[in-house]
Write a structure and sequence with these properties.
Blueprint (H helix, E strand, L loop, with lengths): L3 E12 L6 E12 L3 E5 L6 H8 L7 E6 L2 E2 L5 H10 L1 E4 L11 H11 L5 H11 L15 H13 L5 E5 L7 H16 L3 E5 L3 H4 L4 E6 L2 E7 L4
Parallel strand pairs: 3-8, 3-9, 6-7, 7-8
Antiparallel strand pairs: 1-2, 1-4, 4-5, 9-10
This protein binds adenosine-5'-diphosphate (ADP) and magnesium ion (MG).
């Protein structure tokens, strides 16, 4: 039985004003069922990252409502929003956004600290080991390859066992071996019941998702199910 976990109602996001106004997200209404793997595709500059950031509560809509389960994220105060971001949502950024002066282990520990977890060091190490990075725990991000940094970023996003994982072009900077590894990892998360939203330019990557949204000019212009979804 399906259950809605994300719901957008007439969501808009405008940057700037007057002649310099950009309608980054124009009028998006959609729902995502729990446990679905959704790929978001579309040309550059058409609102994909903005959409993901709005859903993740990293930015607020100019109009419309975004519900995560029964909570409207735009109406939460800073403390409640931080709690939702810390525990319910994991965010993987396009350029990893690791703290450069902290080790891989510390980057994951910070997320656990923000999520209020106990026994942080053990859990952080366990996550890194799970992603094959046990021997890199004390390395700074600058000493790791792109694929390894991306795995640290994913370990960090998964630290508090979020139900929803939002990923902005997570395979964009990976070589094909690292990409294949990440995709099988995402398959595992999908099988474990996580809800995955992933921006990608790569049709082969999108083919692994159950549902593919096409975004153009800040709107969803196509919404298709993949195969047996
Ligand atoms: P995509 O991820 O599809 O490449 P974005 O969501 O990053 O697109 O951007 C959509 C539009 O919003 C672009 O025109 C971009 O320049 C603009 N935009 C994004 N973020 C900001 C911002 N913080 N301030 C002003 N304009 C922005
Ligand atoms: Mg983007």
């Amino acid at each position: 039985m399906s259950e809605t976990v994300i719901k957008l109602e007439s969501v808009r996001k405008t940057y700037g004003s007057g002649a310099a106004t950009t309608n980054a997200v124009s009028d998006i209404s959609m729902t995502v069922e729990r446990g679905t793997w959704v790929a978001i595709m579309g040309p550059s500059g058409h609102g994909k990252s903005t959409l993901l950031q709005l859903i993740g509560g990293l930015d607020r809509p100019s109009a419309g409502r975004i519900m995560l389960d029964s909570a409207e994220i735009g109406s939460l105060d800073a403390t409640k929003l931080a709690a939702v971001r810390g525990t319910k949502i994991g965010f993987v950024f396009q350029f990893f956004n690791l703290m450069p002066h902290l080790t891989a282990l510390e980057n994951v520990e910070i997320a656990l600290w923000l999520g209020g977890a106990a026994k942080r060091k053990g859990r952080a190490l366990e996550l890194l080991e799970h992603f094959g990075l046990g021997d890199k725990a004390h390395h700074l991000p600058g000493m790791l390859s792109g694929g390894q940094q991306q795995r640290v970023a994913i370990a960090r996003a998964l630290a508090n066992d979020p139900e929803i994982l939002l990923m902005d072009e997570p395979t964009g900077n990976l070589d094909s071996a690292a990409e294949a590894e990440l995709l099988s990892l995402l398959d595992g998360l999908h099988q474990a019941g996580k809800t995955l939203l992933m921006v990608t330019h790569n049709p082969a990557v999108a083919a692994r998702a159950q549902r593919v949204l096409q975004v153009k000019d800040g709107r969803i212009v196509a919404d298709a199910s993949n195969g047996t979804a």
